[in-house]
From TrEMBL:
Gene3D superfamilies: 1.10.246.130, 3.60.20.40. It comes from Desulfosporosinus fructosivorans. The lineage of its organism: Bacteria, Bacillati, Bacillota, Clostridia, Eubacteriales. This is Gamma-glutamyltransferase family protein. One of its GO terms (molecular function) is transferase activity. It holds the Pfam family G_glu_transpept. Keywords: Transferase.
Length: 536
């Protein structure tokens, strides 16, 4: 059972689980969380609050997301869980031949080739139109104000910004990247922690999106600017690609774990990896959290699931195996039996065939949202559309160029995607949203959140505070500095290649809002970031 007692937190933390009745917003950036809460206070619902927080994060945490990124959401409303996939496809001109002609043997990180159609603005408009209560222009107003008038940088954002500036200064020398520097380093350096930063271009773009319900971005003036910028520097994204885009409502996927249903967005996201790992783990019993045996089984299950995910997950229209195949109990048992006393060198199985921001919101009416949005690798492609503040993502970097791979690049195809929102229900009633952002750490973070809460009875804040591990590749596991050393030594004796992380930056940043049986909201926020819970 999930523990909601604030007094039970065995881990050192500066925070405790927070409680509220009328509404709650959990985010890694305090200004964004408060923006979401302000919308709730004005009569908006949890969906409005999620949009307000997400849009604000493009301004106050541009190191992790932006207007030119993608988004996914799980929404509990009207007694049902809905899924929204707002990831964009490859442009129609982006072909294997185009990559090969340009001399690329793999997808590059930066520049125009990894830029796919951005889905985030469409997500805001779609969520607002279907489930929102307030006008989109009112919901986006806090973000526009911060972009226009400025805000002081928070510590985690400031450190990430400086790191990005230093990296880009070394790697991004071509003329097409100068707009990133003029937008995000106008003084020839990254803004400092506590320093006021503003972006009038960003404000104008958000205002246009709000007034046109994102039509300006996909078929209007903003689309024209993206098209012009792409053509000028040899990009393959065109206005036609933008105009053809529409986010997709999808049916969430789930498994039952310890009596709770754990929900994820279906592929092309890799929430399926977390579900496959949990499906393997549910055949084991865990009595003690801080034991080498408990960690060993979690790590081994995750490794096996991840290898399958990397082989089989792609745009769902191109996958040779179904979600049902990969989540079958027969296959989970087959993979479970591969786990022994020693660390495995993981390989894909043979199933029987049949820098991101995360936020959570809830209101007093029962609506809850699990939402995630990203540019990938921090600021993304390194490209900023002139006079717009739009930093374009680089999600196409995850495409394979192997013709035999399910995730091989094709025009109009969505790439394997790392950002995933999570949600818990029990007996067809909502428990609530959870998520851990951070590239390929995300399904690993989801697994650790679920096991911490459901196997080891930690409260929401303790669930996030607990030391994390991260599978890197092969038998290599990276551990946070707070991970128990005696357990690390025991894992090494089991054959794991143990490495200690220099900092906690790669272990993800999570948020949780869960509803108690009597309707009280209980929230935890990430201690590894500037996490904040705004509540009412």
């Amino acid at each position: 059972m999930i523990n909601f007692d604030t007094l039970y937190n065995p881990y050192v933390s500066r925070r405790m689980t927070m409680y509220a009745k009328n509404g709650m917003v959990a985010s890694a950036q305090p200004l964004a969380a408060e923006a979401g809460l302000s919308v709730l206070r004005k009569g908006g619902n949890a969906i409005d609050a999620a949009i307000a927080t997400a849009v604000c994060l493009t301004v106050v945490e541009p190191t992790s997301n932006g207007i030119g990124g993608d988004a996914f959401a799980l929404i509990w409303t009207k007694g049902q869980l809905f899924g929204l996939n707002a990831s964009g496809p490859a442009p129609q001109l982006l072909t294997l031949h185009a990559l090969q002609k340009a001399g690329h043997k793999e997808m590059p990180k930066y520049g125009w080739f990894p830029v796919t159609v951005p889905g985030a603005p469409a997500a805001w408009a779609e969520l607002s139109a279907r489930f929102g209560r307030l006008p989109l222009s009112e919901v986006m107003a806090p973000a526009i104000a911060y972009a226009e008038k400025g805000y002081p940088l928070s510590p985690t954002v400031g450190r990430s910004w400086e790191s990005a500036f230093n990296r880009y200064s070394l790697e991004l020398k071509d003329e097409q990247y100068k707009y990133w520097f003029s937008t995000f380093a106008p003084q020839g350096r990254a803004p400092k922690i506590g320093e006021l930063w503003h972006s009038p271009d960003h404000a104008r773009t958000l205002q246009a999106i709000a007034e046109t319900k994102a039509r300006s971005f996909y078929s209007g003036v903003i689309a024209d600017k993206i098209d012009e910028f792409s053509k000028k520097y040899g990009g393959l994204l065109r206005k036609d690609d933008l105009a053809a885009y529409k986010p997709e409502w999808v049916t969430p996927i789930n498994i039952n774990y310890r009596g709770y249903d754990v929900w994820e967005i279906p592929p092309n996201g890799h929430g399926l990896v977390a579900l496959m790992a949990l499906n393997i783990l549910k055949g084991f019993d865990f009595d003690i959290k801080d034991s080498a045996e408990s960690y060993h089984k979690q790590i081994e299950a995750l490794k096996l699931a991840f290898m399958d995910g990397k082989k089989f997950i792609a745009d769902p229209t191109k996958m040779r195996l179904s979600v049902e195949d990969l989540l079958s109990d027969v296959y989970a048992k087959q993979r479970r039996e591969e786990i022994g006393a020693r660390a495995l060198q993981p390989e894909p199985g043979n199933p029987p065939q049949g820098g991101t921001v995360y936020l959570a919101t809830a209101d007093g009416e029962g609506n809850m949202v699990s939402y995630i949005q990203s540019n990938y690798m921090g600021f993304g492609s390194g490209l900023v559309v002139p006079e717009t503040g739009i930093s374009l993502h680089n999600r196409g970097h995850n495409f394979s160029l192997d013709l035999n791979h399910d995730n091989c690049l094709e025009p109009g195809k969505r790439p394997y995607h790392t950002i995933i929102p999570g949600f818990l229900t029990k007996d067809n009633l909502p428990v609530g949203p959870f998520g851990v952002m951070g590239g390929f750490m995300q399904p690993q973070g989801h697994l650790q959140v679920v096991t911490n809460a459901l196997d080891f009875n930690l409260n929401p804040q303790a669930t996030l505070d607990a030391p994390r591990w991260q599978w890197i590749n092969g038998k290599t596991i990276e551990l946070e500095h707070s991970f128990p050393e005696h357990i690390a030594q025991a894992l090494a004796r089991k054959g794991h290649d143990i490495r200690w992380a220099l900092d906690s930056g790669s272990f993800g940043r999570g948020q949780i809002i869960w509803r108690t049986s009597d309707g009280i909201l209980a929230g935890g926020t990430e201690p590894r970031a500037d996490g904040h819970i705004a509540l009412w």
